[in-house]
Amino acid sequence: MYDNGPVLGRNDTCWCGSGKKYKKCHLAMDERLQELWDAGEEVLPRSLMKTPEDIEGIRRSAAVNMGALDEVARRIGPGVTTAEIDRWVHDYTVEHGAIPAPLDYEGFPKSCCTSVNGVVCHGIPSDDEVLKEGDVVNVDCSTILDGYFSDSSRMFTVGEVSEERGRLVEVTRESVERGLAAVRPWGHLGDVAHAVQEHVEAAGYSVVREFGGHGIGLEFHEDPFVGFVGEAGTGPVLAPGFCFTIEPMVNAGEPDIDMSDPNGWTVRTKDGSDSAQWEVQLVVTEDGYEVLSR
Ligand code: MF3
Ligand code: CO
What we know:
single chain; alpha+beta; three-stranded antiparallel β-sheet; 15 strands; 22% strand; binds 2-amino-4-trifluoromethylsulfanyl-butyric acid; binds cobalt (II) ion
């Protein structure tokens, strides 16, 4: 039997908090998951599935998260330091009653990640890092509001950027759209990975293997790991209520990364090539998906 928490009778109140009887709510879905489990499919536990109340909470958190990124979009430009970006994100988040999730997360010292040019991810905002014309920077924001987590990131181009950098940013953005378009309830997580990888590699770029997306909602990083290389039709089943991120890190050169920075966080491309990333957070619905944060 698929281990899915307490076994409910048909007339019991559904586990999702809707107040409806189980038979009128999640029973059919749970039966379908049981059948898939019996057929040998990878089925995520009910504890990862978001209830309508959870999703509403995540939406409110995401509104702040996206607002912080909008604030960055309004103010970023040549001459701005990454520490200033961090302060905008921090202040916006706190002014809206929320907490920046990165701050003190496993010792991370700032309120967002700023990853410039050849930095793949987890760049630490700094007073010494001044953005200049031609840079490309990922700003990764994550927010906790009333215990609900949201997480998304965008690329920003500083002034005029080279054609190569512009193309890397654009192809990466498109790869996330391809990933989203591959999301189907009762499909597989591997469908998303395959769609992303195919688009990235067709453009001559590479997908970083070591980092990926994740389940999210009641915690910052929930199961499962969401990789962006793989085969369609493989991996966990995309059941309605599953909330996760699509956030491929795309290198212009080789996929290998360098994690030797003594600060313990900043990840760079090994070959020094540029890297880009966009991140969206979504929830699988009965008939598709809803983007919660982007
Ligand atoms: N926001 C990142 C993600 O997309 C996680 C950053 S962890 C931090 O999962 F500590 F560096 F902020
Ligand atoms: Co994330």
